[in-house]
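re: the backbone from monday

yeah here it is again, tokenized this time
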């Protein structure tokens, strides 16, 4: 079968799949800590104890980080399995199909701890459920991301697919942030529905939508039709060694991990900023995310235009430092001499500008790294490169959530919010670090 250029209709289908897994992962970023360790004015009780080690590490931070040790083994294995697959239907999409149902189940039950009061066993439940979730999440996302390099084999193809992926991911962020608003709607349906229960039902509904969307590429994209034949014969260890030995990939992965760490901190804190620092209802979160996405999508044509005129490296470094300024401004939320609504709206508008660049360019950069490696070695190891990126992303996201959880020890409630303010400074420092590291990228 001759390899064809993927049509716009299938690129849209690919974006729908990304939208689906974006819902799943971003619900965890937005809701996990808020549900297990809510602020005092949220109308819910702590589901886990605030056990502290060495005065810094609280127990839920350690639990959320523990799963990444498992990912350090699982993600390279998944990438290797995908690269070396000889499935007649393709190397990527069959894996994606196997992951959808278990991924969705774990994404839901993670929010259903066995006890609805503060209990140490809830921590054990969370630890086990997140292991299952992140394994199947990798089983879907690693092959899915590798398709950017493989289906984007024509001029500007990688930018087209990377843009589509970013659109899907960004809209998924908005939908996942609607969970609190949807929970309020569900709670109003009946007086017997608790705030915890309404949040859980909202999470179920959104994850079902995510699962249906994740199934779209599996059902409607013929991988063999749009991907050039290729196979990696190297062992998983050899492929891993090659990827980690690539200078550009190491720089890219380190900067990418720091950036995702910063985003996880701010995303985890959004509902806290709105509720504890600004005194606004949680339901405004979806409107704020919608505004940010509107700004981001409006700027995508600008991103694609600048990418052709200015080196990606220059744009990436400037964008990382710009994001640092935005995150640093979180420290003064609630103290600016303007209304709380104006403060948070301004924050989200300025967040959307650098986010539009960092939503597209990194994926396109990594696809180029993988393509160059294929030309140099003759081995199609796109899965390994995107698998290792997924690992660094998840490490960054998890450490970000962990850092935010640790900072809540220093205040997460109205009038006692120093920990929330420090989270903005932490996000800014990480973006400065990412930008500094990326200056060493050899374009």
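seq for it, each position gets an aa:
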């Amino acid at each position: 079968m001759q390899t064809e250029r993927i049509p716009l209709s299938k690129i849209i289908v690919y974006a729908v799949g990304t939208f689906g897994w974006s819902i799943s992962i971003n619900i965890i970023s937005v809701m996990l800590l808020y549900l297990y360790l809510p602020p005092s004015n949220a109308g819910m009780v702590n589901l886990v104890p605030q056990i502290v080690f060495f005065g810094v590490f609280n127990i839920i931070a350690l639990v959320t980080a523990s799963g990444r040790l498992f990912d350090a083994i699982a993600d390279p294995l998944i990438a290797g399995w995908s690269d070396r697959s000889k499935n007649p239907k393709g190397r990527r999409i069959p894996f994606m199909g196997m992951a959808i149902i278990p991924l969705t189940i774990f994404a839901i039950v993670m929010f259903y701890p066995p006890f609805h009061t503060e209990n140490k066993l809830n921590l054990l439940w969370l630890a086990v459920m997140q292991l299952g979730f992140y394994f199947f999440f990798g089983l879907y996302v690693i092959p899915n991301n590798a398709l950017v390099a493989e289906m984007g084999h024509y001029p500007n193809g990688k930018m087209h697919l990377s843009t589509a992926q970013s659109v899907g991911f960004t809209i998924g962020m908005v939908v996942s942030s609607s969970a609190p608003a949807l929970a309020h709607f569900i709670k109003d349906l009946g007086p017997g529905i608790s705030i915890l229960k309404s949040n859980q039902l909202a999470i179920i509904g959104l994850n079902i939508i995510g699962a249906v969307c994740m199934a779209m590429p599996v059902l409607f994209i013929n991988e063999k039709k749009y991907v050039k034949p290729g196979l990696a014969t190297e062992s998983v260890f050899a492929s891993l060694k090659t990827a980690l030995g690539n200078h550009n990939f190491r720089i890219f992965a380190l900067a990418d991990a720091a950036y995702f760490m910063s985003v996880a901190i701010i995303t985890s804190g959004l509902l806290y900023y709105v509720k504890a620092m600004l005194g606004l209802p949680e339901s405004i979160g979806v409107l704020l995310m919608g505004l940010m996405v509107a700004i981001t999508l409006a700027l995508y044509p600008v991103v694609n235009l600048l990418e052709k005129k200015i080196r990606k490296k220059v744009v990436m470094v400037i964008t990382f430092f710009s994001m640092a300024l935005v995150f640093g401004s979180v420290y003064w939320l609630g103290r600016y001499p303007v209304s709380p609504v104006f403060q948070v709206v301004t924050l989200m508008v300025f967040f959307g500008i650098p986010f539009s660049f960092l939503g597209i360019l990194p994926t396109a950069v990594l696809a180029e790294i993988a393509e160059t490696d294929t030309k140099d070695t003759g081995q199609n190891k796109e899965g390994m490169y995107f698998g290792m990126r997924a690992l660094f992303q998840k490490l960054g996201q998890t450490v970000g959530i962990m850092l935010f959880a640790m900072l809540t020890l220093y205040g997460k409630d109205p009038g006692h919010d120093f920990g929330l303010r420090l989270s903005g400074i932490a996000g800014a420092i990480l973006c400065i670090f990412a930008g500094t590291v990326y200056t060493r990228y050899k374009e």
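The chain has one domain: 8-224+246-438. The longest strand covers residues 52-53.
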